[in-house]
Amino acid sequence: MSVNLEVVREVSEFNNYYNSLSDLLNKHLAENNLSLSALRVLVKLKQDEENSTAGKLIASLGIDGGYLSRILKSFETNQLISKRKSAADGRTWFLQLTPKGRKLLEILEESSGTSIRQLLEPLAPEQQHALAGAMRTVRHILSDDSRISLDDITFRRDLQPGDAGYLMHLHGSLYAKEAGYNIEFETFICKTFFEFLETYNSSKDQVFLAMHGNQIIGSIAVLGHSRYATQMRWFLVHPDYRGIGIGQRLLNEALAAARDKLFQKIYLITTSKQEAAIRMFKKNGFRKSGGEAYAYVGIAADGREV
Amino acid sequence: MSVNLEVVREVSEFNNYYNSLSDLLNKHLAENNLSLSALRVLVKLKQDEENSTAGKLIASLGIDGGYLSRILKSFETNQLISKRKSAADGRTWFLQLTPKGRKLLEILEESSGTSIRQLLEPLAPEQQHALAGAMRTVRHILSDDSRISLDDITFRRDLQPGDAGYLMHLHGSLYAKEAGYNIEFETFICKTFFEFLETYNSSKDQVFLAMHGNQIIGSIAVLGHSRYATQMRWFLVHPDYRGIGIGQRLLNEALAAARDKLFQKIYLITTSKQEAAIRMFKKNGFRKSGGEAYAYVGIAADGREV
DNA sequence: TAATAAAGTTGCTTTTGTCAAACAGATTTT
DNA sequence: AAAATCTGTTTGACAAAAGCAACTTTATTA
């Protein structure tokens, strides 16, 4: 892939900036007689619980073997870690934190927390959240296993001011990028949102939003059009978040809500271009009903099929 | 201000993450026989051009005096900097980069660039931009002079897919926060956007967007309702970006466009709550015209006032 | 003018990290 | 099965990075 020059510059400046900042954030290490490398070892030991060995640490932290050996030795004399000889390989030792080591890590986290708090203290709450979000983004983009898990995603059922606009934005920009739609499509979306907002009633209409932090990254809605039929709309998952089950989760919520409210039929309209979505609809019992509309024969409370 | 626990955790994890990353990004220093501190000194010398002294460096970089003295001495023997005795104070020396020092910095930037490029190489272009944006955000929030200047803002005249939705989002969420409006207001906004989109025509309608990176942070529109009258709408600057002239700049653009197209009257509708906006309108020649509408007597091409 | 302070330097020390060789157990080769 | 090779870890020697305290020189102040 090609690399954008502006991006390189920004990363470089960020790196410069952060180099000076990290002094500040890591000053608590000196107070506890630890080097940055030693901290990283400690943290890694906590993460990899039970089956870490010196070799693995060398590989994962990129640290020099000799240096690590000494760090570990000092950890051992300070009773921060304990070694357990491997049965399979007489050369290797399994390393684990002792309660004392665990305790030290807690203390370190606590004192690093105070530095951080001092850094954040002058910031307004929104700025703090924006900062956290940006840092999460950086980490997320740069880490190889950049997959987000469902655990990072929260779900919301209420429609707050700004949400409708953001949903419209997501639809407009994503469909433009992925299906080549233009602004006319956004006009259409806008119309549907207006009609929806005008008659919005939480007893008949349900909106489900998948959130990452305070950003909407997925949505679905179940709109009650009549006593018996309901339309599903605005089903979308942001491309960065696809493939981890958010779509299915949203669909489940929507179907459950439709059943709860005793709707007997759910229909939705889509186009043949939405292959992935159509596959998911089919898997969940939707059937094509002519034209571009898919109709779902729902299990209504009275068992009738429509 | 209170500090959110989640934010502290995120910053802490980010710090951990970045500590391991900075090894990678700074490996070029070893190749050039420089320490991180030495690099920071060099960079600072370039920034503070002409009037840096050892004392200032100590204060701004938080580096030890003795250590700095040695770094500077080595720079001098390598002819990377030159010293100039202060006339006012016999103890201090002014430091400046020599052409050779400047050259070295360039080389360093270049080789840091290659590390960065390697880091970015596997990323898709959008991810690269997202990364740059997030890094800019972090840096911006944390740097004391968190003021953005007009230079950081770009302006756009075209309406791209997703823009209308995002504008609606901005209006909905900001007015909710600042004026306590609820979702009904967003419904109204949605209606105006739909009407607008439906009849959008770039020859009569103009939209101006203030962008920071690829985020819309301000907007204004001039909608041609008749041959002679035009309505100004969607005037808004995101609160984080207020007070640096973005609003005035948008207003200028809008008025200029209205004049260009020979509209003789610009009107806009607002509420008394929008005090700052109203002050700006008045300053730019708008006059109240009864009710909640302000009408602007424009200088049309034929000089008539309406 | 003596006392004190500030800017910068130097000597000494500790900490941090690197490199190469050594060592011991595991694996492969002959 | 012994020799050779490989792998995970340790040790010794060393160099670079950074901090501390004493010291020199020039300014400022009482």
Shape of chain A: elongated
Count of extended strands of chain A: 9
Q: What is the chain-wise order of helices and strands of chain A?
A: HHHHHEEHHEHHEEEHEHEE
Strand order of the largest sheet of chain A: 3-4-5-6-7-9-8
Main beta-sheet annotation of chain A: 7 strands, mixed
Could you say what the CATH topology of the largest domain in chain A is called? Aminopeptidase
What does the secondary structure layout of this molecule look like, with pairings?
The structure is a homodimer of 306-residue chains.
Chain A: H1 5-25, H2 27-31, H3 36-47, H4 54-61, H5 65-77, E1 81-85, E2 93-97, H6 99-120, H7 125-142, E3 153-156, H8 163-179, H9 183-198, E4 206-212, E5 215-224, E6 229-237, H10 246-260, E7 265-269, H11 275-283, E8 286-288, E9 293-297
Parallel strand pairs in A: 6-7
Antiparallel strand pairs in A: 1-2, 3-4, 4-5, 5-6, 7-9, 8-9
Helix pairs in contact in A: 4-5, 8-9
The structure holds a DNA duplex (30 and 30 nucleotides).
Domain N-acetyltransferase (chains A, B): 167-306
Domain HTH marR-type (chains A, B): 4-140
InterPro entries (chains A, B): Acyl_CoA_acyltransferase, GNAT_dom, HTH_MarR-typ, NAT_camello-type, Transc_reg_Sar_Rot_HTH, WH-like_DNA-bd_sf, WH_DNA-bd_sf
